[in-house]
Amino acid sequence: MTAVLATIRDFEAAARARLDPAHYDYFAGGAGDEVTVKANEAAFARLGLLPRVLRGAGTPQIGVTLLGSRMAMPVLVAPTAFHRLADPEGEKATARAVAAAETIMIVSMAATVAVEDVAAAAPGATLWFQLYVQPDMAFTEAIVRRAEKAGCAALVVTVDSPARGRRDQDVRNGFDDLPEGMHCENLRDGDGDHDADGDGDRGPVRPIVMSPAISWEHVDLLRRMTRLPIVLKGVTHPADARLALDHGVSALYVSNHGGRQLDTVPATVDLLPEIVAAVGGAVPVLVDGGIRRGTDVVKALALGASAVAVGRPVIWGLAAGGECGVARVLEMLRDEVEHALTLCGLASVRDLEPGLVRRC
Ligand SMILES: Cc1cc2nc3c(=O)[nH]c(=O)nc-3n(C[C@H](O)[C@H](O)[C@H](O)COP(=O)(O)O)c2cc1C
Ligand SMILES: CCCCCCC(=O)C(=O)O
Fold first, then answer.
1. 338 CA distance to ligand 1 middle (Å)
2. Which residues lie in coiled coils (predicted)?
């Protein structure tokens, strides 16, 4: 008898059973002692929801619009690298599932399928593009132009990676490169017209540089380079949130990279209220890290997030069942958000407010 996968944790177990153990460790793991990885999930468990009763609220409305992109639920797909390690179709499968779920996929710069091919595989999908600013700004600009041309609707600039996080499991497993024939396709030299003459040669792939020299000046350069809205991902300090507003970003994305960069950064949901206060409603605030249940989504929105993103849950769906697996994970989250709101007595995600959340 095939086991029914009823929760994201079930999907993780199914993914673990299918994946090469070194690849599972890469996806699941974090930096250092994984204090932050554990904190992200544990923080949600410490928050309680205090429902209202007898409100006659009916079936709740859970769609939101973010930077002009309409979503059927307030849950985006966070940028994650190397989807072809989880499924041969890789990011193409993820994008098709995202199109069906009517949400947003943030395509990682470290995707194993070129952003043009992801867009072509899922014409209905809303795609945003995640960028690690490369010190060679001409190369950075070429990548941004590819994302624009592929139809991406926003640029998500990851700023928590002035160096790569140290992940001890990857060191133990000797996992430091993609298998033969798999590449970060957005890192090819050129304009993304990657096989113009059809000879199969798509040009050399550059390594991703994570540089401690990247600064606010680069955000200003990007601001002048593109008309796409810029979302700053990896902000955890309220002072940086205020600076980001001075530099003209369109949204802030509170993230500790799922505990994969600096270990011991506090749980994102605990940092969220201070960032929301610092931003004062000037721009939308997104958050990710440890979201595994609809109730987690509801708590984050009640504390001021405009929407949340999920990283590993999508990988677990992809590894367990390809496109259908991702679709099921997104559908489960959607149903859980709607169910949690119904039980809270609310008519809409817009009615969520901090008074619904109690620290247990
Ligand atoms: C396997 C993996 C790869 C990731 N790759 C990227 C990436 O390429 N760019 C990026 O900005 N964040 C990346 N992240 C971080 C995610 O965008 C996100 O912040 C994190 O996964 C959220 O935590 P969660 O996995 O608990 O949902 C990655 C995370 C994982 C687990
Ligand atoms: C050298 C490739 C780096 C890919 C970065 C992916 C990532 O952010 C992660 O957390 O892993």
1. 25
2. none
